[in-house]
Design goal:
heterodimer; A: alpha+beta; four-stranded mixed beta sheet; 4 strands; elongated; B: 81 residues; mainly alpha; 2 domains
Chain lengths: 167, 81
């Protein structure tokens, strides 16, 4: 691009017209101006691109994290027993109700539903915090992988093909 | 010189157009690596009660972790079990 500019700029515009040193000076000054402008544009672009960061905070996200954090303590026994597992789409599910005493099934169902609501909202809110609502599914799959990665040994998780695996 | 100026301006305009297009292109891709770091940070925060008392709230919120400072920090989370 710059080379093309140089070529066009140094072409004499009138046939037979001898380029004077003043003309050459003018051309040089113009060239320097253009090159400076273009490099400035590139630098601005680079700084803009690096400033576009991934955000994870908004009042809604903070609230959701708080909810999930408070609920987690109640869910741990169910993760440990294998009653609740981590799904491949970043949620949790009651995968084996038989290990939960009858009296506790209602409460575990409530916990799972509430947890999934908060997790879905979390993915949506992070996407919104980044002004990219269309990123929600990417965020969901990222979280799905990371929840599983950080799951404790003995917890159950769903593999990509849908089958369940004990960690 | 006038013609040359016009040509140069056109080229400059095109160059600027390319720069803007490049910026937009960079911006629309999902930053997977950054998202992974953010996910790790959040999971660390919400699952940190694992090894401590169940359900008890941990006052471990860092002051730089509020809504005003919403950029990710690049510290790797090595403290997870």
């Amino acid at each position: 691009m710059i080379l093309a500019t140089i070529k066009l700029t140094i072409n004499p515009t009138r046939p037979g017209h001898e380029r004077s040193s003043e003309d050459v000076n003018l051309v040089h000054r113009q060239l320097i101006r253009y090159i400076t402008l273009i490099s400035l544009g590139f630098f601005l672009c680079i700084s803009f691109a690096s400033a576009v960061d991934f955000k994870a905070s908004s009042p809604a996200v903070t609230q959701l994290k708080q909810n999930i954090k408070q609920r987690h303590g109640q869910l741990i026994p169910f993760y440990d027993s294998g009653a609740v597992g981590l799904t491949r789409d970043g949620l949790i599910v009651l995968r084996d109700a038989s290990v939960v005493p009858l009296s506790g099934r209602q409460s575990v169902n409530t916990l799972v539903t509430a947890e999934n609501q908060d997790r879905n909202a979390l993915y949506r809110e992070i996407a919104l915090a980044n002004n990219h609502p269309e990123w929600e599914s990417n965020i969901r799959s990222t979280f799905a992988q990371r929840w599983i990665k950080w799951a404790k040994p003995g917890w159950w998780y769903q593999q990509e093909n849908g089958s369940w695996q004990k960690k | 010189m006038i013609m040359t100026n016009r040509n140069s301006n056109l080229i400059l305009l095109m160059a600027a157009g390319f720069v803007v297009a490049a910026c937009v292109t960079i911006n629309i891709y999902f930053p997977a690596a950054a998202a992974e770091k953010v996910a790790d940070k959040i999971i660390d925060e919400v699952w940190q009660a694992d090894d401590e008392a169940d359900g008890r709230e941990q006052p471990r919120e860092k002051s730089g972790n509020d809504t005003r400072n919403n950029k990710i920090d690049n510290k790797p989370d090595k403290t997870r079990p």
